[in-house]
Amino acid sequence: MSTFNETKENQFPKLEQFVPIVARVHGEHHPEFHDVHEVFDAINEKIKEAGTEKPELNEEFAKLRAITDNYKVPGDVCEAYEAVYNMLSEVDKAYQD
After folding, report:
1. Are 73 and 82 in contact (CB under 8 A)?
2. Kindly report the CA angle at 84 between 7 and 24, in degrees rounded to 5?
3. 3-class SS at 26?
4. How far apart are CA 10 and CA 53, in angstroms?
5. Dihedral sign for Cα atoms in the order 6, 16, 44, 67
6. What is the Cα–Cα distance from 21 to 60, expressed in whole angstroms?
7. Residue 87, C-beta contacts closer than 8 angstroms, at least 6 positions apart
8. What pLDDT was estimated at residue 15?
9. How far apart, in whole angstroms, are the C-alpha atoms of residue 90 and residue 69?
10. Residue 20: exposed, middle, or buried by beta-carbon count in 10 A (0-12, 13-18, 19+)?
11. The pTM is what?
C-alpha cells in the first residue's frame, strides 16, 4: 500500500495536466466535473502550502466522493476522464490509510 506522499508524488503531476483538459473537453456534458476541478485545485493548494506535512483534506475528499458518486466513471467519457477519477480515488484511499 502506497503512502499518501508517494501517491501524491506519483499522481499529482498527471492530475495537474489532466484535470483542466478534462474540464474543458467534458465540462459541457458533465458540469459536475467543474466542481471536481474546483475541489482538486483546493486540495492541490493545501498540499503545496503544507510542504512535507500532511494537510487536512477530509472535507475535500468527502466532497469529491459526493460529486463523483465515489469516483464512478460515466459511460460516455474518454480514457483521460476515467484516469482522473482513478487517480483521485487512489490519492483519496492513500490519504485515508
Report:
1. yes
2. 140
3. helix
4. 17
5. negative
6. 21
7. 11, 14, 15, 18
8. 98
9. 15
10. middle
11. 0.94
Question: What cell does 79 get?
Answer: 480514457
pLDDT tens, the chain, 97 aa long? 569 999 999 999 999 999 999 999 999 999 999 999 999 999 999 999 998 888 999 999 999 999 999 999 999 999 999 999 999 999 999 999 8
Q: What is the predicted pLDDT for the residue at 71?
A: 98
Based on the number of CB atoms within 10 Å of its own CB, is 52 exposed (0-12), middle (13-18) or buried (19 or more)?
Answer: exposed
19 in Cβ contact with 37 (< 8 Å): yes
Do 39 and 64 touch, CB atoms closer than 8 A? yes
- Domain containing 8 equals 4-96
- In this prediction, residue 2 carries a pLDDT of 64
Which residues, in sequence order, are CB contacts of 84 under 8 Å at separation 6+?
Answer: 15, 18, 19, 22, 36
How many structural domains does the chain have?
1
The answer to whether the beta carbons of residues 30 and 77 sit under 8 Å apart is yes
